[in-house]
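FORM 7B - TANDEM STRUCTURE REPORT

SECTION 1: FIRST PROTEIN
SEQUENCE AND TOKENS:
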Amino acid sequence: MTNENDLVLERTLDAPIDLVWAAYTDPEHLKQWFAPKPYQITECELDLRPGGIFRIRMVGPDNFDTGHGTAGCVLEVDNGKKLAWTSALGPGYRPNEMGEGCESFPMTAIVTFEDAGNGKTAYRAVALHKDAKDKEAHEQMGFHDGWGTVAGQLEQYAKTLRVNA
């Protein structure tokens, strides 16, 4: 269910679905892989319920800093299968003021996880935008490279959970 204003990333991750889900939905785990290195997530709040908060602070060696980050809103949680969140709304579904840079346009992310067999996970991330201009801005910020890089980091991090499980 995508349209021309959406950006899509699909990967088969070499890690079991339960560990990929844990890596994605536990704030302490998410901080380890969610930003393309050498950028880092220094703060993360994630309340896994509709209307709950999804907020990160990303910093980089080039003095990039989202500040405390605009708090997004969790829209849907299907445990182990799907997480949808948006930057257009804050916690409790309150409309957000948009910020600067990567926070300058509203976006909704729908991330799904399916068991791909043999300990692998089919991972799909769709970024929904309100129009072609926002989609293009997100694409030019490096959606495919950035989200692709972090999908690889998610895979690698989830594998460490397997070792530690």
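SECTION 2: SECOND PROTEIN
SEQUENCE AND TOKENS:
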Amino acid sequence: MKTLNSEALPTIDSNTLKSWLDSDRVTLVDVREVSEYVGERLPTALLVPLSKLEPHNIPQEQDKPLVLYCRTGNRSAQAAQKLLAVGFRGVTHLGGGLEDWKKRGLPTIVNRNAPISLMRQVQIVTGSLVITGTLLGAFVSPWFLMLSGFIGMGLLFAGITDTCALARLLAKLPFNQRL
């Protein structure tokens, strides 16, 4: 197994994963949310979102390693750690995630009719709230500027921790749950 960081968590690179997929030597699980999976995914990937990850829901074939992936590799690393902690063997994750896969020009399955990405939804909602808070702060009461400040703090927290509560909330909306 080719790994990049075998000390902490087994990690596979995109080119190795591609060769394993081509020879049907791997079980591939996408741990992103439904809306992300519907929009774009790797061929043969099964969907088990990290937010709903239960070890008994993970398919594990004895003779195939289990590879997890997400957009950047952060959520798949969390999922892999969770599975390793309960005794799974042969678990690894795609370093750099789907972004690295695409950067290398490897193929994905894209659904042009999927809802817009969660990140764009987050940008639309946060941008709207900042504009609303600023306009209400300027023309109604300066207290409304706290809305813009609150959104700014949320974005700062999301950037530092690489977790976005708004994205998780938006992912639960019905139009983001359709497969």
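SECTION 3: OBSERVATIONS ON SECOND PROTEIN
The domain at 11-110 is CATH 3.40.250.10 (Oxidized Rhodanese; domain 1).
The first helix runs from residue 14 to 22.

SECTION 4: SIGNATURE
Preparer initials: ____
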